[in-house]
Design goal:
By secondary structure, the protein is an alpha+beta fold. It has 2 domains: 39-220 and 259-551 and 687-789, Glutamine Phosphoribosylpyrophosphate, subunit 1, domain 1 (4-Layer Sandwich), CATH 3.60.20; 556-585 and 588-686, no CATH class. Helix content is 38%, strand content 17%. The protein is built from 26 helices and 24 strands. It is globular and about 85 Å long. The protein starts with a helix and ends with a strand.
Amino acid sequence: MSISFTKVLQSNVTKYTLTSLVVLFMLVLLAIYSVLRLSMPSLNTSFNSQDITAPVTIERDELGTAIISASNRLDASYALGYALGYAHSQDRFFQMDLLRRNAAGELAEIFGEKALERDKNRRFHQLRKRAQMIFDGLTTKEKQTLRVYTKGVNAALKAQTLSSFEYLLTQSSPQPWHETDSLLVIFSMYLDLQGNTIKRDMALTQIKQTFGPDMLAFLTQTSHHQAALDDSQIPYFDGDIPTLEPQLLAQANSSTITAPLEVGSNNWAVTGELTKSGRAMLSDDMHLSFAVPIIWYRAQLNYPSISDAKTNNVPNNTNPSAQITGVSLPGAPAIVVGSNGKLAWGFTNSYVDTADWVEIDANTEIALEYEPIKLPSSEVMHTVQVSEYGPVKTVNDKNYALSWVAHQDYAVNMGLIELEQTTTVDQAMALASSIGIPAQNMLLADSQGNAGWKIAGALPSRSNPANVAQTATEVQTQAWQQPQPNVPSVINPLSHRIWTANSRVLSTHDLAQFGDGGYALGARATQIRDRLHEQEQFTETDFFNLQLDNQARFLQPWQQYLLNLLSQQPKRFAEDVKFINQWGDCACADSVGYSLVKHFRAAMIDQSFAPIETNLTSQGSSLAVIKRYLETPMWQLINQQPKSWLPKQFQSWDEFAISAYKQAKTALLKQHSQDNQLADLRWGEVNKLDIKHPFSKQMPLLSHWLDMPAAQGYGDSFMPAVQGASFGASQRFIVQPGNEQDAIMSIPGGQSGHPLSPYYRSGYQQYVNNQATPLLPQTIEHTLTIKPR
């Protein structure tokens, strides 16, 4: 009887405990939800500000697009920055904070010692100090733009009832925005877009020093995928394959050469000759790493034009003379890619050479400068070595100084804003060289039917770019301090078509002056060029289909090579051959064969160049930054099959290649199949799109609330439809200026960085379903009004 009572008592206690825990858990969830609600920005409100003289409105449509209207020209230059800054700060302040801290090397102040090494690497460039120096030298108009933008950011920050959840989780506080922080945001793009150029030149220097100039020439030979606008061709490598020393083969480790993401983009345009309307048409999709929130922010700016202001012909809010629609970068007061109804513009990373290492000797004076790095509860003093050529680092007991365009006082400005009031391709071309951004292939289209290309952004005047370190006598110090005034351009070519995709766009003549900063292989550009020549008339739908083109033209030789290899053992590889034969010739979600071919190629490159990679790794370097270059020498090895490059455990190159395939397949099955079934290796699963919030990577329990839903992979590298697990087209933009009602702007993520916002995932499903989302704002859902005090 007592035992039975005890069991009942224990059972009741257990039930009580479980009930209490559930209640406690629900209370915690309710508390978290309440805190998050308090940090939500108000989208329907009105308040007064002493910084404007007429009302400014910020409307939000169903995607959360910030539609900003200023009522008169006096307020346009003042309130425009204020309104845009307010919207950026409401939706994305933590993202803005990370961008400025990333460039300045100030992440450890929030994230502690785990961010310290990254901060030290960033302090090498001393960008906080440079941003202040550049701000001091800006024009009065540019300073005013940054000041009013900053006031808008800080006004929205001050209006928050509670800091956003990111600050609560990191136990930190948001610091006010400063005028120079917007310049740091642009510097952060320099680090993303040109950082690999710096690493590449140092790796090539080490290859030359270790293996000699013949090996350097072999590894960096010209790709057969050349698509310059003038069709000029760089001569192909005609040297012999260098002999690989036996000790290098013996010391080689089997490891993956992890290539950096090919940060870049696609864009192309056709003149009005090839559209029904007679307007030129532009396509632009910028390839960047994906995170939550996505990097770009939808915005439309409405304000009187300069001509209206001069004549006092001031339109009302519903009929502005200047309407600019596109995407902005949170932290900077400009539309990065967009259209104003008469002119549209888009960018791809140019990959011209914007950095050189200089080998310095004991005669070069080196000064020490101190950079204090804050931690949450302490401070670390970091030392930077500085010379007349730039900051100094030591590699293999040698000192090298970095001359980089980002270190120059013309690297950053607010010139991009001038495109908003520009109406023709010719006018935009004249602005290109004065825009302070990382050097980009700027593609232009106007409503009069003109299309053009020019490199826009900061370029040095030096005329001797180098892929390996220069000596102090070779560097053109004075030329580095002056921007390049003469930049090549193309307007309305005879073919009526223009394309860029991070490979060489320049003629071979101009290449000698502007150099190679790590051009893409060229396969994407070649496929885009060829597709453009398949039609004589284009619509927005045609351009969108080209953005989604995932045909595997680049991998076709690899598929045939692999089939020939596996056919030597037809019974053993019967299932493999079936899937590879039925690969669909595309990076399609249901293609098993594509996964097998793709990873076979990667394994062949990794294992063939392992001896060189092993040696470079021991020196703190890698082939990773030039991995895309290895395609052409890899085929030369396959075709000539030199014995000195064949690992000793194999009798033939075919045996070596089959072994590489088997290892690639085994690794794929281990990662993607529980039952060791080839059918599980569908490309959509192997290359699944999985866009995560930075915090969910450290706290997986938050993944459901913070991350975008995972989606089947579509596309890959070396084709127009670029996509990786967390990389790809960060926006898909298509427009005929003056025909914006049919224009497209698809983005893989929402406007807001707040997980409870209805705009947190807005537009994402349309993107992953390959649906064309409109550029222009749709139904208005919220209105915020700022009134003069």
